[in-house]
Design brief:
single chain, about 90 residues, 4 helices, 2 strands, globular
Length: about 90
């Protein structure tokens, strides 16, 4: 899986161990945004690319396991993602 966001890298090296680990995992789903989040295309790319934590977040959505019990943030409809993934 490629990680196209510059914020995720220091030159050719990935910035965090989490990003490096998630990059090696097998993608299992497309990230699904909440219906209240209206970022697509370039705007979504800019939002994800603004912080390394956002890159980690989308990678977890792509490779993580859907939680059977939602976390507090998901229960409050907080955050951009439609599914609680860990």
């Amino acid at each position: 899986m490629t990680v196209p966001w510059k914020v995720a890298r220091n030159a050719r090296k990935l910035k965090t161990r989490t990003i490096a680990k998630l990059k090696q995992a097998t993608p299992v789903r497309e990230p699904l945004q909440r219906s209240t989040t209206h970022c697509t295309g370039k705007r979504l790319d800019e939002r994800i690319g603004s912080k390394a934590a956002n890159v980690e977040s989308i990678l977890i959505q792509i490779v993580g396991e859907v939680s059977h019990q939602e976390c507090t943030n998901c229960l409050q409809n907080d955050g951009p993602w439609a599914k609680c993934v860990r």
